[in-house]
Write a structure and sequence with these properties.
306 residues, mainly alpha, 11 helices
Length: 306
């Protein structure tokens, strides 16, 4: 037989085996439910085949399997479902450590489910929920109880352990569970803004190739054209036909004798304004020239960066 034929045969045999196993588990569950007496809390939430499967798993596998059995699909993102799942997994693992029977584990999980549903569905108070637990424990320790709460397959010592566990795990945190089931979880929308730099479009002028890139210091020292030299100020020469006239002290005194104080102030002010005006014009021209040089350098750097 070829390898392909062997694989096909193995697949058919495996499918047949899984089918028989599933059918056998179904018959076992139905038989257990049929044989259970009326009012029992066993096999209500977890069937016998499911309990047997969970007992063979480690705690992480129980966590995943329990989420599937209880239809808690969003436990990874929904805090309420995550808390409920932890509640059931912790309870099951505790029952396993107490070496409870399959029937006792199933009944214990049903009791946990009933008490939790009383908070979630009925908004029951702590006192009323304690009364519900007391009703479940009725008949424990009696050989033939006339009235049973559904957990009479436990003995008195086990019932005490069960009560202590439920008190510490549920009733001591009752307000937290009430808060969890009455208030909706805030939805958090988490987003990330990405800033992506793209290459310039391949239009004219084409962007320079990256392999020709160089450091700015190298470009400015060896490639960039040197800045133009500053223009020398031309000395203003007096007209050739005119000679500067020099006044003597006596002539200066004669001129000032006929000038009033206000006129003198006006002359001095006009001279100062004329000198400052020419100086301001020179400074402005130099600033514009220096600004033009810097703009030229920035333009060259931008072209290189592009």
């Amino acid at each position: 037989m070829t390898t392909k034929g062997q694989r096909r045969l193995l697949g058919v045999l495996k499918a047949s085996k899984d089918s028989r196993k599933s059918h056998s588990s179904l018959n076992e569950d139905e038989e257990a439910i049929a044989n259970e007496k009326e009012g029992s809390l066993a096999w209500k939430v977890l069937h016998i085949s499911q309990v047997r499967t969970l007992l063979e798993l480690n705690v992480d596998q129980v966590h995943l399997k329990m989420a599937d059995l209880l239809n808690l699909k969003d436990h990874a993102v929904n805090l309420q479902e995550a808390a409920v799942l932890d509640y059931y997994v912790a309870g099951f693992w505790w029952a396993k450590e107490q070496s409870f029977t399959l029937q006792q584990i199933s009944g214990f999980i049903t009791a946990l489910s009933t008490l939790l549903d009383n908070i979630r569905e009925k908004q029951m108070s702590l006192v009323d929920n304690l009364k519900e637990l007391k009703k479940m424990l009725v008949g424990i320790g009696q050989e033939t109880p006339e009235v049973t709460g559904g957990l009479d397959f436990f003995n008195t010592d086990q019932a005490k352990l069960l009560t202590d566990y439920i008190t510490k795990s549920l009733f001591q945190h009752y307000k937290l569970y009430q808060y969890m089931f009455t208030l909706e979880q805030d939805e958090m929308v988490i987003g990330t803004e990405l800033s992506i730099e793209v290459a310039p479009p391949a239009d004219i002028p084409f962007p320079p190739p990256l392999d020709e890139g160089m450091k700015e210091a190298v470009y400015l020292e060896h490639v960039a054209p040197p800045p133009p030299p500053p223009e020398k100020e031309e000395e203003k020469e007096a007209p050739s036909g005119e000679e500067e006239k020099v006044f003597t002290d006596e002539e200066v005194e004669d001129i000032l004798e006929g000038v009033t104080t206000d006129e003198l102030k006006e002359v001095i002010s006009s001279v100062v304004n004329e000198m400052l005006g020419s100086l301001s014009a020179d400074v402005g021209a130099k600033l514009k020239e220096r600004e033009a040089q810097y703009l030229a350098k920035i333009s060259k750097m931008q072209k290189i960066a592009e």
